[in-house]
């Protein structure tokens, strides 16, 4: 939802978003359970307005290029073999 709103995201390696987010492009991927990395990522986005805006724009474009909720539902249905039941 944040990306669809044009906002960069900060995620950990454990959330499964590395197929959606390129670190430093649409947001920042940080190590799990690393509060220093979280602090650094948030400070970077707070302090660097231009970088934050560019990442937000890239995040929005990424969602629009095939990663909306509708696109997700289609992938789930196709991968689970549920297409014939709908």
Care to describe what's here?
The model has no long low-confidence stretch (mean pLDDT 88). The protein is built from 3 helices and 2 strands; from the N terminus they run E-E-H-H-H. The protein has a two-stranded parallel ribbon. The longest helix has 16 residues, at 49-64. The chain is mainly alpha-helical.
How would the blueprint of this fold be written?
Layout: E1 9-12, E2 27-30, H1 35-47, H2 49-64, H3 69-80
Individual helix count: 3
Largest sheet: 2 strands, parallel
Shape: flat
Order of helices and strands: EEHHH
The poorly predicted ranges are none
Task: Classify the beta-strand content into a percent band.
Answer: 5-15%
Structural class: mainly alpha
Record field, number of beta strands: 2
